[in-house]
Specification:
Blueprint: H1 2-29, E1 47-48, E2 54-55, E3 57-60, E4 63-66, E5 100-102, H2 110-113, E6 115-118, H3 119-122, E7 133-134, H4 138-147, H5 152-155, E8 159-161, H6 165-169, H7 182-185, E9 201-202, E10 208-209, E11 214-222, E12 232-238, E13 244-247, E14 254-255, E15 260-261
Antiparallel strand pairs: 1-2, 3-4, 5-6, 6-14, 7-15, 8-13, 9-10, 11-12, 12-13
Length: 262
Amino acid sequence: MKTTCYRFDALLLTILFVILLPGCKQDQDDDPIDPEVPVEFPDCGTVTDTDGNVYQTVVIGSQCWMRQNLQTSKYNNGDLIGTTAAPNSSIVDEENPKYEWVLEGNSEYLDTYGRIYTWYAATDPRGLCPQGWHLPSDNDWQILEMALGMSQEDAASEGSRGNGIGSKLAANKTLWNKGPGTLVNHANFGTSGFDGLPGGARNSGGAPVSPGFSTYWWSSTLGQSSQYNEAAFARYLVNESSSITRVRPITQFGLYVRCVRD
């Protein structure tokens, strides 16, 4: 008789466990993390450029970066940065051209993507970045990449490197609307607060380069390449890869500027 009671008790406990377990799971599911609540990242305040544009910032590792691309049309001393008569004008034959443009000449893109600058404008001694900030060197970029988990060996190499690092630096899946989407589909997408957006670039012939699919940022560091005599190190994100690419485009190209605090 005792054995029968023990079996009955065990059976009763099993039934209660099966009945109550879905209820417990439902309680957990009823309280998910709200996907609409924006993620907060550490920052170092706001910063204002010569045109009066105000930028949010983000702290990543030991550095503080602007969260948006630079938009200024003036150097720090108030001088206007030059531009071409038409946004698609070729500057292939110009030496040391110092120009700025808005993507495809469309002013509606300015607030989203910022301005595109030749390397010569970006490194002009009159300065583009606000006081206390500067155009990042190639080493500044490597420090950022290593703070996000890239090895020192990979950071010093060229080409695409750092699986998932590019996705960390990007943001806004809606704008990254071209290509297979490896960048946006990676679990790391948008987790750094750097907020890279796909503004493409401008080649020296005046044509836009892959807007909606990629973005490029200058460094201050020259780096002659096998393809170009006058080239500088830059960084490149593309929607078909979760990595970040270290490249050396020609200095006449128009790329974006992201400032880092001194």
